[in-house]
Amino acid sequence: MKWPAIGYARATSLDELWRLQAEHGAAAQLLAGGQTLLATLAFRLSDPKILLDITRIAALRGIAVQDGVLRIGALTRHAELGRDPLVAQHAPLLAEAAPLIAHPAIRNRGTIGGSLAYADPAAELPACVVALGATIVAVSPRGERRVPAEAFFTGLLQTALAPDEIIAAVEIPGTQPTTRSRIIEVARRSGDYAMAGLAARLSLNAEGRVTSPRLVFFGVGSGPVLAARAGAALDGWVLDSAAIAAAQAALAEDLDPPADMHGPPEMKRHLARVLTFRALSPLLRASEVAE
Amino acid sequence: MNEIRTADSLGLSREDLPNSYIGRSVPRPNLPKLVQGRATYTDDVVLPRMLHAAFYRSPHAHARILSIDSAAAMLVPGVVRVFTGADIAKVCDPWVAVLAHLKGMKSAPQYALPLDRATWQGEALVAVVADSRAAAEDGVAALEVTFDPLPAQTDMATALAPGAVVIHPELGDNLAFQRTAVQGDVEAAFASAHKVVEARFVSARHTGVTLEPRSIIADFSRADDTLTVHLATQAPHMIQSVLATQLHLEEGRVRVICKDVGGSFGIKVHVYPDEVAVAAISRILGRPVKFIADRFESFGSDIHARDHVITGRIGVDAQGKILAFDIDDLTGIGPYSVYPRTSAVEGNQVVNLCGGPYDFANYRCSTTVVLQNKVPTCQYRAVGHPIATAVTEGLVDMAAHAIGMDPIEMRRRNMLRDDAYPYTSPAGMRFEGLSHHASLAKLLELVPVDRIRADQTAKRHKGVYRGLGFAAFIELTNPSPFMYGIGGARISAQDGATVRMDPDGSVVVASGVTEQGQGTETILAQIVAHGVGVAVNKVRVVTGDTQNTPYGGGTWACRGAGIGGEAALQSAIALKDQILHVAGTMLQASPATLDIMLGEVVDKTTGTPRISLAEIGRVVYFRGDTLPKDLPREFVQTRHYITKEYPFAFTNGIQACWVEVDTATGMVKVLEHWCVEDCGRVINPMLVDEQVRGGIVQGLGGALYEHCVYDEQGNLLTTTMADYLVPMAAEMPEIHVGHVETPTKESLLGAKGAGEAGTAGAPGALMNAINDALRPLGAVVTEQPFTPARILRALDAI
Ligand SMILES: Cc1cc2nc3c(=O)[nH]c(=O)nc-3n(C[C@H](O)[C@H](O)[C@H](O)COP(=O)(O)OP(=O)(O)OC[C@H]3O[C@@H](n4cnc5c(N)ncnc54)[C@H](O)[C@@H]3O)c2cc1C
Fold first, then answer.
1. For chain A, how long is the longest CA-to-CA vector?
2. Cβ-Cβ contacts under 8 Å for B626 (sequence gap 6 or more)
3. How many whole angstroms separate alpha carbon B705 and alpha carbon B728?
4. CATH architecture of A179-285
5. Was domain A58-173 assigned CATH 2.40.30.200?
6. What is the percentage of chain B residues whose pLDDT exceeds 90?
């Protein structure tokens, strides 16, 4: 299909963006990497009158560490996440996630801000930021607001952003030497949205005891799903086969997946259990593995 | 091997025989054009005063059209006119797609745009023409169409049940076609069998997903009363005839031009109602009208295929000898049989092909072809073959397992002997010469079976499940008029080539077969260069123009090389004879002592150059006065070719597939795949290998990923490339291709088809490999696509 006629304007600063937004109101829609938006426009699924291109707004760019917090600008492309040394050091989970997102051409354009704002339930990055206990920095003409990632995703393709707010950055708390993270997924073909995926982060002390585990599933709900009971089943326990089994069992209460084209809810539950095992078992101590 | 001087046949290297091209991997001369973006696809053609069409497509699977209000659409800037079914019907007749030799077949009249009822979701109902496609889509969005939704008949299993929605009441029921082939005494054979194995197979609805979508420009000129159609098609002459008939034009006043085509796979060999509507609109407006299907509408309007449910039984004796097959095929084809090839052919092929590679006496196979409110289905690459092969080979493997026999041994014991030909199969197919045993032997040279089996055992101890599967197949190629012509369709089984030499000694060949991106023009150039005796870069190829090529059938059923190629070879040889005749006169030598090599007439025995073709061309074309008056000098020769001895040239082959199944996730990873096939003479090994590889990828994709999914109301759920999953490079294995060459004796060239072999065998080999992997766990899958959900269910994991 062909796009309907649409206006286009490029903002070079937040102030200019606010001015354009005030001028066009609900008829305007932000354009970042365009990897989701342009496809929906071609299907004529939405009907904005003007696209406001934010990709030249410097305030939304950049990756930096300040006071032990990693700040990733909303315009950071998926490809940049995959190769940035600060990301690799302070949030390796995101670096590990990048190659799982779509294909190189899409990763070259798609942005973390766009991915979080669109909030696809099967997307990797929303799950990662929840697993990392990140904070979403939202800005509007009224100023800045910080929303914990856990509270940011409010439903299917829904976020806590107000209509005039945009995502400026994501802030990720520093990692400890004891922090472990892992993202794995099952997708029909490489680059596809996952049938089910798991972004996990936890701390593992010298005795192999788990603290502050966060198992966040994607592709199995209306957004990223923080598996609280599975986490509780691990928290404070030595990571062993029994602990993993307990976490797997607890998923029954954590997850209520919908059916989709790939299969029924039982399949997603099953895959979530498999992913839990596969994410955690590499962290088992050698003695456990040998058993 | 048939008598053509090739380097191989003379025991020479190709450097020793420089003008030999048949059997060589000549690079494709049209490749730079394609990769540099200099090809001419239909959408690249821009004509003065051209309009663009977009269609309002039915949102319902089945609905009465109550009203169409175009007032708002007519106000959209750029919109020129809106056409309903009634508008089109004034200049365009409906058609009924049946073939006389498919006894009892029925279908309803189909209009280019329906008059009052939509019968599938995605059916074009109203056309809007405008200055641009975008404006036409704006116009479509402004149309107001009201419907009375009707219950939809979607499940083929209930199509004939009492109370089913009869889609065309005038037909009485939803049965389009039924055929049963019986040979021998099936029941007695089963009664005496040592083991009988039964299974139910499902082959999912697929579509072809051509890179270039369906594309047409129709340009009716009132000035000379001609309709010129630029079309992405496989069969220009067939379309010429159909458009002339439907639009009441003389056939000679319709010209179909088809330059570059971006893949077709059978999708572009059919008559599409929206394309006919575009021709009718141009006829009415007297202006060129372009329609390029977008991907979204392609999923809902390109033909679908392979929607079958099959139950099968095989009976074997204690030594593993196959005694009988009994197969029941049910297929749903949409609301209309597709014109003019009909939608009964796929089911009919299943009946023709099941059990094909094997020597057995008792056969019963039936197909039941029913109507349903879904996209119409029709012939798609390897029509019916992947279904028949998966069913046959699935049953053979199950029988082998039931009697504890190795699947390779089982096949070796039952395959038709290589010296059994000519042979008529229980399904009535006549085989001129096949090479099942030679192909199996060649396959076993390529597949390291022992190493694979050892690895399989070792891996199983570690909880890794790998499997090896085989599938032997036969493939129908080089069709005679027995395929369509005898049924009354104006589809030529004959093809022609005109070869001419121009004054500079260069050669032009015009052929009735077409280039779809597969390399037809390359092999035509090779054959003609070889046949005349010029360098291949001195040959230009013209295809895809009904006004400038000999009448022919085009590209389908693997006929391009075998039929079009033979016509090209014969006309090239005729031109060479003519040139040598003139050269003999000029040189005062007997033509028999001369030959042509790389554009030079040479002394046959010594190879000494005598005169160049350019010099002969100069004399003949510009100084004809210097030649004897009665010397024939027709440097244009045309030959036609049609197969006469056999209805079809069957080919054969066998594939092997090596997979790993992740039994926790249900994911299948194809590790390696092999195919040995016998397409007769291989003209260009690289092109044949890539045809086989591409076909295998299409077969694996169909068996693993591809599926046109409908809900119960007949809504198509897979309308984007994110939902209709095609195979991609990352998931595809290393594919090894080998050949056995049994040329057909019907032609000098000896070529049979190669384009469908890969697709024919891959799904069956893959299924058998998955089931080999799952066997220790007691799981079996027979329903395609083999999705993670289905595999997990078979494993009782969900
Ligand atoms: C073929 C294909 C496969 C894909 N596969 C995957 C996959 O496997 N996993 C995955 O996670 N993603 C996948 N994607 C989506 C891709 O990651 C997108 O890039 C991402 O979802 C959106 O980012 P974007 O920058 O392109 O946003 P855009 O498309 O520009 O915008 C998306 C939406 O977010 C809004 N928006 C953008 N930026 C902001 C902001 N800073 N603040 C507020 N609102 C904003 C826009 O207005 C719009 O509504 C795929 C995309 C394609 C085309």
1. 67
2. B619
3. 10
4. 2-Layer Sandwich (3.30)
5. no
6. 97
The top-level CATH class assigned to A7-53 is alpha beta
Q: Is any ligand 1 atom within 6 A of the Cβ of residue A123?
A: yes
B275: which residues sit within 8 A by CB, 6+ positions away?
B214, B216, B231, B291
Q: What mean pLDDT do residues B104-112 have?
A: 98
Residue contact A195–B788, C-beta within 8 A: yes
pTM here is 0.97
Residue with the two structure tokens 């400026």? A168
Residue A286 pLDDT: 66
Distance B723 CA to ligand 1 centre (A): 18
| Amino acid A288: pLDDT | 64
CB B42 within 8 A of CB B24: no
Contacts of A243 (CB under 8 A, 6+ apart): A210, A233, A234, A237
Among protein residues, the one with the nearest Cα to ligand 1's atom 28 is A34
Decide if A262 and B665 are in contact by the 8 Å CB cutoff: no
Tell me the backbone φ, ψ of residue B45, rounded to 5 degrees.
Answer: -85, 125
Residue-by-residue DSSP string for B441-509: HHHHHHS-HHHHHHHHHHHHHTT-EEEEEEEEEEEEES--TTTTGGGT----S-EEEEEEE-TTS-EEE
User: Domains in chain B, start-ordered, CATH in brackets?
Assistant: 31-39+494-641 (3.30.365.10), 42-150+209-301 (3.90.1170.50), 386-475+649-794 (3.30.365.10)
Find the residue in B nearest to A187 (Cα).
Answer: B667
Alpha-carbon gap, residue B423 to B412, rounded angstroms: 18
Q: What are phi and psi of B783, to 5 degrees?
A: -110, 115
**Ligand 1 pocket mutation, candidates A17, A37, A147, criterion most atoms within 8 A of CB:** A37
What is the domain partition of chain A in residue ranges? 7-53, 58-173, 179-285
* Strand bridging mode B600-603 / B594-597: antiparallel
Establish whether residue A135 lines the binding site of ligand 1, counting it when its CB lies within 6 angstroms of any ligand atom. Answer: no
Chain B neighbors of A191, CB-CB under 8 A? 728, 730
The two structure tokens encoding residue B776: 């220790």
Q: Do A1 and B789 touch (CB under 8 A)?
A: no
Q: Specify the pLDDT at position B1.
A: 42
Residue of A nearest to B704 (CA): A188
Q: Do B296 and A189 touch (CB under 8 A)?
A: no
Its sign, for the CA torsion A191, A192, A196, A202, is positive
Whole-number pLDDT of residue A290: 46
